[in-house]
């Protein structure tokens, strides 16, 4: 089994700036973060501006050094830069990012929770195989939570909360109408519609928190934060996605709880299957086909 190559030493600096948009550049190894103090602690956040149309959305996030390293290594693993079984040595990663080993240990624990590496006593960390079943479960669990949210919205006679979702749907419509939109912008726009539905159903402590705190949440984000996300490449696919969300809001406003839930699940299963195809996991030997049939 190979070991992650050592990188040339650089000044011990790592940024605390994490943008909602990533360059996604593949260089054969993880790129070094931009300059900043390598304290392993969260530092001042940077404003990340994402423009998906004439409307500009600005978000600000803060990440620890360990979280930044986990994000970059995780994306590199998903892109195939580090094969299954490769050893992820603490010292090699510390030199790669020019940091101490403390933040590296934090990063490895994050990657272990995400299922991208496994850490064994006296053997260290190694890249593990991300299976069909795990990816299917990520989408299926989210589909169940979103299905419950749209049922709540359909059964609630007060539809005023949907006013916050309408502008997000309008942004998705504008992007779907473009010949060559940024696929990352489109993927993020679909996510904003989904998050708007969760917010509108009035369950911030349960549904929203559960959705955000799922063990694979960061892995989910890694799949999309790249120039060419694993879905929405064709114009027909983007148009169909917008139309599905538009019909979904119509069913919610018509108080059609069953129809809204079925359509929400369809949206999620379509994306699930696109991602499985993209990752080459649809027909792997140990795949449980019933995970796709059950949802």
Topology record:
Layout: E1 46-51, E2 56-61, H1 65-78, H2 90-97, H3 101-113, E3 117-120, E4 124-127, H4 132-155, H5 166-176, H6 183-200, H7 204-212, H8 217-224, H9 235-253, H10 257-278, H11 290-293
What does this structure look like?
This protein is mainly alpha-helical and 295 residues long. The chain has 2 domains: 129 residues, Winged helix-like DNA-binding domain superfamily/Winged helix DNA-binding domain (Arc Repressor Mutant, subunit A, Orthogonal Bundle); 162 residues, Four Helix Bundle (Hemerythrin (Met), subunit A), CATH 1.20.120.530. Helices cover 51% and strands 7% of the residues. The chain is built from 11 helices and 4 strands. It has a two-stranded antiparallel sheet with strand order 1-2. The longest helix has 24 residues. 35% of the residues are buried. About 18% of the residues have low confidence. InterPro entries: GntR_C, TF_FadR/GntR_C, Tscrpt_reg_HTH_GntR, WH-like_DNA-bd_sf, WH_DNA-bd_sf. Keywords: DNA-binding, Transcription, Transcription regulation. This is GntR family transcriptional regulator. GO terms for molecular function: DNA binding; DNA-binding transcription factor activity.
Indicate the mean pLDDT. 79
CATH H level, superfamily name of the largest domain: GntR ligand-binding domain-like
The main sheet orders its strands as 1-2
Indicate the CATH class of the largest domain.
Mainly Alpha
Helix segment tally: 11
Tell me the distance between the termini: 37 Å
Largest beta sheet, briefly?
2 strands, antiparallel
What is the percent of helical residues? 40-55%
H-E string: EEHHHEEHHHHHHHH
CATH topology of the largest domain: Four Helix Bundle (Hemerythrin (Met), subunit A)
Do you know the CATH architecture of the largest domain?
Answer: Up-down Bundle
């Amino acid at each position: 089994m190979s070991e992650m190559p050592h990188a040339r030493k650089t000044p011990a600096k790592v940024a605390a700036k994490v943008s909602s948009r990533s360059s996604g550049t593949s260089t054969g190894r993880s790129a070094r973060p931009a300059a900043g103090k390598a304290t392993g602690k969260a530092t001042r956040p940077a404003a990340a501006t994402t423009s998906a149309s004439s409307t500009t959305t600005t978000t600000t996030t803060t990440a620890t050094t360990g979280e930044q390293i986990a994000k970059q290594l995780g994306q590199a693993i998903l892109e195939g830069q580090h094969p299954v079984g490769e050893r992820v040595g603490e010292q090699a990663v510390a030199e790669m990012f020019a940091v101490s080993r403390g933040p590296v240990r934090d990063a490895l624990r994050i990657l272990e929770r995400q299922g991208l590496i496994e850490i064994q006593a006296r053997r260290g960390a190694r890249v593990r195989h991300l299976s069909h079943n795990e990816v299917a479960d990520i989408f299926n669990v989210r589909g169940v939570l979103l299905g419950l949210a749209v049922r709540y919205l359909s059964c609630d006679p007060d539809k005023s909360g949907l006013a916050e979702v309408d502008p997000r749907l309008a942004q998705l419509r504008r992007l779907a109408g473009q010949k060559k939109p940024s696929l990352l912008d489109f993927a993020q726009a679909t996510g904003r519609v989904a998050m708007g539905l969760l917010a509108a159903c009035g369950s911030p402590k349960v549904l929203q928190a559960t959705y955000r705190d799922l063990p694979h949440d960061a892995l989910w984000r890694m799949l999309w934060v790249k120039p060419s996300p694993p879905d929405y490449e064709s114009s027909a696919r983007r148009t169909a996605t917008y139309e599905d969300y538009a019909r979904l809001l119509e069913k919610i406003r018509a108080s059609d709880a069953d129809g809204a839930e079925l359509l929400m699940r369809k949206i999620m299963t379509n994306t699930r299957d696109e991602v499985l195809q993209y990752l080459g996991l649809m027909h792997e030997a140990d795949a449980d086909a019933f995970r796709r049939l059950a949802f």
